[in-house]
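Sample pair:
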Amino acid sequence: MNVDGTRELNFRIPMYIEPGVENPAWYNVRKGFIIANMRKIKVIFNKNTEDEYVLEFLITNVDETHENN
């Protein structure tokens, strides 16, 4: 948690699920259907337990990176 009470979440969406099989969510990200700048997502932690809690995150930055060609 940051000093101002905010939290940061970083995650990756792979372009390929396995070699040669494209991940449809990756293309949706590029088209803006799933993840886009300034969209809100909810993340459930400890799902289906007594300690389950939900945090909301505001997506403020989307970076596209490439590895292995």
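The mean pLDDT is 78.
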